[in-house]
Amino acid sequence: MSRGFFITGTDTGVGKTLVSCGLAAAFKDAGFRVGVMKPAESGCRNEKGHLVPQDATFLKAAAGSNQTIDRICPYRLGVPAAPSVAAAHAAVRIRPDFLVRLCHDMGAAHDLMLVEGAGGLMVPLVDDYTYADLARELGLAVLVVVGNRLGAINHAVLTLEHGACMGLNVCGYILNDLESEGTPATATNAQTLQAMTKVPCLGKIPFLRPRGASEPPETRPDLGSLFERQVQLDYLKQIM
Ligand SMILES: Nc1ncnc2c1ncn2[C@@H]1O[C@H](COP(=O)(O)OP(=O)(O)OP(=O)(O)O)[C@@H](O)[C@H]1O
Ligand SMILES: [Mg+2]
């Protein structure tokens, strides 16, 4: 069984990739050999006949990985939909057993694996097989990225509780500020969540103002040190 974390979120677009990149950079800075995977990526842009997976590309760079994009992201899909749907559209058969083997294989060559889901836990990879099933088969602890916005409480509690119901080891959540301006909801979500669940909050990521179109937050050179300050890395090191 590999060591590491499966990173899921309360929804699509809540910062799973940003958090995975930040963790990868922070663990790398601490001397770990970090393996990364984005098992399936939908909505890849087509560049001269090749589907380019943006998330996997960010993850590879943040981890300083020498693995090929083929291994980091075996299923690259063009249609922006759940992987099961995008795969059916492209007549691709996603094979969970292959993903599990590949992750274990990569895990053997690294100190830890960070595997990013797509959307949330109940997104299907195959018609009757979700990311929750994959997380369980990978045997990785599950970290939930909570997008700090209106609606986060409901999505977060549902994800944390359903993860536990599915037998997953949900080790904590990270609250990620998606908006530059605070609102009554974003200012109180942390406190409300803390009162509603025993699952620990393992970090809070502030809104990272883009430094121009050419420098998205995922590629910030200080991302590792920012995560060292904002996330309980020592706790994560202990439990993995
Ligand atoms: N803390 C933050 N500060 C500023 N921008 C952020 C922050 N977190 C995420 N973003 C931006 O929000 C967008 C969505 O984030 P991200 O791609 O990480 O979401 P995701 O959960 O990985 O989505 P998907 O389900 O498509 O994989 C990106 O443009 C990202 O740069
Ligand atoms: Mg992503």
Explain what you see.
This protein has 240 residues and is an alpha/beta fold. It has a single domain (4-239), classed as P-loop containing nucleotide triphosphate hydrolases (Rossmann fold, 3-Layer(aba) Sandwich). The chain has helices at residues 16-29, 54-63, 69-72, 83-89, 96-108, 131-138, 152-165, 184-196, 223-230, 233-239; strands spanning 4-9, 34-37, 40-41, 45-47, 50-52, 75-76, 112-116, 124-126, 129-130, 141-148, 170-177, 201-205. The strands form 4 sheets. Strands 2-7-1-10-11-12 form a 6-stranded parallel β-sheet, with helices on both faces. Strands 3-6 form a two-stranded parallel ribbon. The protein has a two-stranded antiparallel ribbon with strand order 4-5. Helix 1 (16-29) packs parallel to helix 2, helix 1 crosses helix 9 (223-230) and helix 7 runs parallel beside helix 8. The chain is globular. Bound molecules: adenosine-5'-triphosphate and magnesium ion. The site of magnesium ion has 4 residues, from helix 1.
